[in-house]
């Protein structure tokens, strides 16, 4: 295996992006930040891969338009996934492993506010028995939350503790669209929304974009003193049906964690768009109590579709670059109720 | 004035899918007022039936009719239903394990408020009056009444054919925003102007404008007003009728390279027989009456020949 590191990261998150869902306007400055961090030009990037969805954009081939932000003279080596940035990064990591390229810039974007996000996401479900009912994301998460409450695996207080810590930590995050911790008591006093979920249990609808830069071996060492070396990267998926899974568990998250060897991490950025899902993930990933969870504020403070999982990896990488931690992980999820999960562990090396 | 122009857009498509034998059996059952599950190799009865056994991966064949009465195993309140959901007033989504089944199915429960819901409550199917062989043949579940539920209305012999396909209409509503550069273009059109953008690196002029030069990846910062005359670079004669066509074929769609622009844009060529349109032909924009203008490319009705001599191939060969 080639040694590959995360050496660049840039993000934008906002409540409502006043611009085209192609997001070219957001991507150009993100790429500029990546060039500045690495000292590269676009010609130093061996492979590009983006994550986005036309269902979110409300137009066809939105990812083709987004390529304008790269500039393709001379032509670029480019790909696309209709998945989160984390999976675009996975493809780029594989590409580097093949030896064909040494560097990659992956990016993702989405204007969730253009439509009704929780409804649009019903299109990722089984099309015969689920989509015709238009089960919205919040309802499916609510079924999962109640399953855990009924099984006494967690309760509303534990969920509120996740929210309170997240929104408190988010105060230090300039990109957070929801922030400001209060107290568990105050959060619990707020009204139910989608019983058993309160609004703050659900990640805010967020527009945004993000980019991650990967480099192999010496190319990574040239960029940073402390590259975030990828020590493990794995993803796995559970069945889609809500009826045949134990919703209180996420075997695919446990499998991804095993594949990425999560032991010894000091910081974990978890892509849990609903408060109780962090509790599921902590169990499945086997995280010890002293692991710092989502010091960025996590997805409950901002959850741009197609970027939010990759942002977790970027935030975890920054902890390595700064020397605040020597071993971290970023996690991304996709599908209903933690159906699909990716874990990326990173480490600093002397 | 808002920074960008936006407009509502609805993207809709009726997805037509074949069901295969397993989902077809399930949906045929729903049409006939019966819920059908399947026994897997491990002995559990699963509803809806999985197409393949989760352990042996053999196709499912052991179908089992289960009750239309069952127990709620989890639920979530839907305070603000979205379009297309089973009910247009607040309701619960629930996982319901029907009597005779071992796993729950997802559907709606029609009650007035969340206080009427509880895990473990008994519910029964409320069948739709007109059933077609779709998940929505179950209108919703309702709390179980004292008296046993009425059987679904019987099915006539004329409906005895099995369900083999479903049509799932999908319709999504958006507020679609133009980019700032596209917004300037459309606002220009509303004033009878054609506005492009120039790339600061390669100096190429794009119309309709792009947010970044696709060649250089640089923001196209400089606005350029363009001539209303140009050259046909390439064209096609439309002979095929299609849904929504506004002009009777044959007619010509062409790429017109406006004088001063570096990329041609697509428009109609009229006022000339289709078989006389040619590469290099000089054309000019024909605008609709000013009182019909909006922020739309339709302000330009079409392009019409200027009558000037054709442009030299050399002048547009790099724009094909």
Overall residue-averaged pLDDT value of chain B:
94
- What low-confidence regions of chain A span 5 or more consecutive residues with pLDDT below 50? none
Q: How do the helices and strands follow one another from N- to C-terminus of chain B?
A: EHEEEEEEEEEHEEEEEEEE
- DSSP strand tally of chain A: 11
The biggest beta sheet of chain A reads: 11 strands, mixed
Number of domains of chain B: 3
**C-alpha Rg of chain A (nearest Å):** 19 Å
Of all protein chain pairs, which has the greatest interface, and how many residues does each chain bring to it?
A-B, 64 and 67 residues
- Can you tell me the CATH superfamily of the largest domain in chain A? Thiolase/Chalcone synthase
Structural class by sheet pairing and helices of chain A: alpha/beta
**Number of continuous helical runs of chain A:** 12
CA-CA gap between termini of chain A = 19 Å
Total strand segments of chain B: 18
Query: Would you state the CATH class of the largest domain in chain A?
Result: Alpha Beta
Beta-strand portion of chain A reads 15-25%
In terms of topology, how is this protein built?
The complex is a heterodimer of chains A (350) and B (320).
Chain A: E1 4-14, H1 24-38, E2 47-51, H2 54-57, H3 62-66, E3 78-81, H4 85-97, E4 103-111, H5 117-120, H6 137-150, H7 156-169, H8 184-189, E5 205-216, H9 217-223, E6 228-237, H10 251-260, E7 267-269, H11 275-285, E8 292-293, E9 303-304, H12 308-321, E10 327-334, E11 340-347
Helix pairs in contact in A: 4-12, 7-11, 10-11
Chain B: E1 6-18, H1 20-31, E2 35-39, E3 45-46, E4 63-66, E5 69-78, E6 91-98, E7 105-109, E8 122-127, E9 138-143, E10 165-177, H2 180-190, E11 195-198, E12 205-206, E13 222-225, E14 229-238, E15 251-258, E16 265-269, E17 282-287, E18 300-305
Antiparallel strand pairs in B: 1-10, 2-3, 2-4, 5-6, 5-8, 6-7, 8-9, 11-12, 11-13, 14-15, 14-17, 15-16, 17-18
């Amino acid at each position: 295996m080639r040694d590959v590191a995360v050496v660049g990261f840039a993000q934008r998150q906002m409540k409502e992006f006043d611009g085209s869902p192609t997001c070219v306007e957001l991507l150009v400055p993100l790429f500029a930040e990546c060039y500045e961090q690495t000292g590269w030009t676009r010609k130093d990037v061996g492979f590009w891969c983006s994550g986005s969805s036309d269902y979110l954009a409300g137009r066809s081939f939105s990812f083709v338009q987004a390529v304008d932000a790269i500039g393709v003279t001379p032509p670029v080596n480019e790909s696309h996934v209709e998945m989160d940035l984390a999976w675009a990064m996975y493809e780029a990591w594989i590409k580097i492993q093949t030896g064909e390229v040494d560097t990659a810039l992956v990016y993702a974007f989405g204007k969730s506010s253009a439509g009704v996000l929780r409804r649009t996401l019903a299109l990722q479900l089984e099309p015969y028995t689920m989509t015709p009912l238009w089960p919205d994301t919040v309802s499916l998460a609510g079924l999962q939350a109640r399953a855990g409450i009924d099984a006494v695996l967690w309760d509303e207080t534990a969920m509120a503790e996740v929210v309170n810590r997240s929104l408190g930590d988010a105060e230090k995050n300039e990109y957070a669209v929801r922030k400001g911790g209060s107290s568990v008591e105050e959060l619990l006093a707020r009204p139910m929304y989608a019983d058993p979920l309160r609004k703050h249990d659900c990640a805010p609808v967020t527009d945004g974009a993000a980019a991650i830069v990967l480099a192999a071996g010496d190319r990574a060492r040239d960029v940073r003193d402390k590259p975030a070396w990828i020590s493990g990267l794995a993803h796995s998926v559970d069945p889609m049906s809500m009826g045949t899974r134990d919703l209180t568990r996420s075997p695919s998250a446990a499998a991804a964690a095993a594949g990425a060897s999560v032991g010894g991490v000091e910081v974990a950025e978890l892509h849990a768009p609903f408060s109780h899902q962090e509790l599921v993930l902590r169990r499945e990933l086997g995280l010890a109590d002293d692991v710092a969870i989502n010091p960025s504020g996590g997805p409950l403070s901002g959850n741009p579709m197609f970027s939010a999982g990759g942002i977790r990896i970027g935030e975890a990488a920054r902890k390595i670059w700064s020397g605040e931690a020597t071993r971290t992980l970023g996690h991304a999820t996709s599908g209903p109720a933690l159906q699909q999960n990716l874990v990326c562990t990173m480490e600093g090396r002397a | 004035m808002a920074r960008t122009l936006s407009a509502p857009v609805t993207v809709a498509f009726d997805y037509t899918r074949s069901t295969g034998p397993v989902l077809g059996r399930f949906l045929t059952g729903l049409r006939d007022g019966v819920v059908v599950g399947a026994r897997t190799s491990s002995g559990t009865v699963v509803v809806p039936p999985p197409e393949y056994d989760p352990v042996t991966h053999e196709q499912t064949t052991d179908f089992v009719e289960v009750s239309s009465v069952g127990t709620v195993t989890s639920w979530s309140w839907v305070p603000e239903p979205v379009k297309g959901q089973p009910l247009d007033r607040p309701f619960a989504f629930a996982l319901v394990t029907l009597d005779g089944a071992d796993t729950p199915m997802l559907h709606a429960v029609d009650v007035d408020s969340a206080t009427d819901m509880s895990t473990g409550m008994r519910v029964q199917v409320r069948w739709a009056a007109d059933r077609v062989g779709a998940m929505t043949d179950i209108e919703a579940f309702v709390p179980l009444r004292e008296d046993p539920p009425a059987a679904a209305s019987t099915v006539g012999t004329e409906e005895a054919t099995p369900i083999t396909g479903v049509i799932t209409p999908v319709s999504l509503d958006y507020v679609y925003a133009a980019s700032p550069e596209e917004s300037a273009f459309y606002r220009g059109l509303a004033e009878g102007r054609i506005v492009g953008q120039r790339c600061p690196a390669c100096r190429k002029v794009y119309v309709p404008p792009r947010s970044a030069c696709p060649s250089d990846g640089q923001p196209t910062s400089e606005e350029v007003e363009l001539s209303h005359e140009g050259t046909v670079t390439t064209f096609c004669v439309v002979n095929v009728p299609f849904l929504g066509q506004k002009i009777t074929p044959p007619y010509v769609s062409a790429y017109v390279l406006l004088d001063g622009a570096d990329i041609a844009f697509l428009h109609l060529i009229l006022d000339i027989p289709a078989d006389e349109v040619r590469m290099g032909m000089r054309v000019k924009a024909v605008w609709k009456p000013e009182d019909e203008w909006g922020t739309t490319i339709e302000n330009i009705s079409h392009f019409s020949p200027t009558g000037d001599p054709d442009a030299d191939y050399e002048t547009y060969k790099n724009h094909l």
